[in-house]
Every structure is written in structure tokens, then in C-alpha cells.
Amino acid sequence: MLVAKGIIKSYGNLKVLRGVDLSVERGQILGLMGVNGAGKTTLISILAGLTRPDAGDVHIGGVDLLRHRRQAARHIGVAPQALGIYPTLTVQENLDCWLFTNEGVAG
Ligand SMILES: Nc1ncnc2c1ncn2[C@@H]1O[C@H](COP(=O)(O)OP(=O)(O)OP(=O)(O)O)[C@@H](O)[C@H]1O
Ligand SMILES: [Mg+2]
Fold first, then answer.
1. What does pTM read for this prediction?
2. Of 3, 94, 99, 101, whose CA is between 20 and 30 Å from 85?
3. Span 45-94, pLDDT tens digits
4. Residue 44: helix, strand or coil by DSSP?
């Protein structure tokens, strides 16, 4: 479902990701562990199509994320560490809100 190969990302002289490979099957749950600043959020942002890697490939559901971001994005949902949900809305209302937002973005 998700295949990433040779992901490289630097910020200036700081080499954050130095060739990350990973593969996640449909239904599989993967935990990403690392010390603060290890590059977890950077990697997730790349896999979600929010940040461009310096090098590497990402395929989601067989779709090349870097070449066909919108098509690949239909398979992706991201709940960030903070501000990911509206606490005063129900779970259903939160889902409706984000589904509506994604429909709007994807056109
Ligand atoms: N936009 C950016 N510009 C410059 N440096 C950045 C940027 N984003 C992240 N970094 C740096 O890249 C490194 C990896 O950051 P990242 O946020 O990916 O780590 P993390 O593993 O998610 O950390 P944490 O456990 O604290 O959430 C850190 O040194 C961070 O300061
Ligand atoms: Mg982080």
C-alpha cells in the first residue's frame, strides 16, 4: 500500500533523512520511533505529500506520490500531533468536516 525508497532530505547542512526505505502492506500498522529531531515528522510529511524529498520515491496504492500528488493523496489521511481535531465536535462531525475539506481540495 505504501512503498518509500531512498528518501533523502536535508535542511541546509543538516542531513535529516539519509536514504529511508520502508514498505507497509494494506492493514499493517507501523510505528515510527526515534529521539526528538530524528526526522519522524519530516518523513511523515513527505509520505503525506506535504514536503518534497531531495531524492527518493514514494508510491501509495501504486500511485507515484511525487508525480501524481492529488491522485495519491486520495489514499492518505494524517492526524497531526496537535490541532488535528476540533474538541467540541463529535467524532462523526470531525470526520464530516475533514472529508468535506479533502473533497474541496481534491476537486
Ligand atoms: N522546516 C525546517 N527547517 C529547518 N529544519 C527543520 C525543519 N523541519 C525540521 N527541521 C529539523 O530537522 C530535524 C528533524 O525534525 P523532525 O521534526 O522531523 O523530527 P521528529 O523526529 O519529528 O522530532 P520530535 O520527536 O521532536 O517530533 C530537526 O533537527 C529539526 O530541527
Ligand atoms: Mg515530530
1. 0.84
2. 3
3. 999 998 999 999 999 999 999 999 989 988 888 877 776 778 898 989 88
4. helix
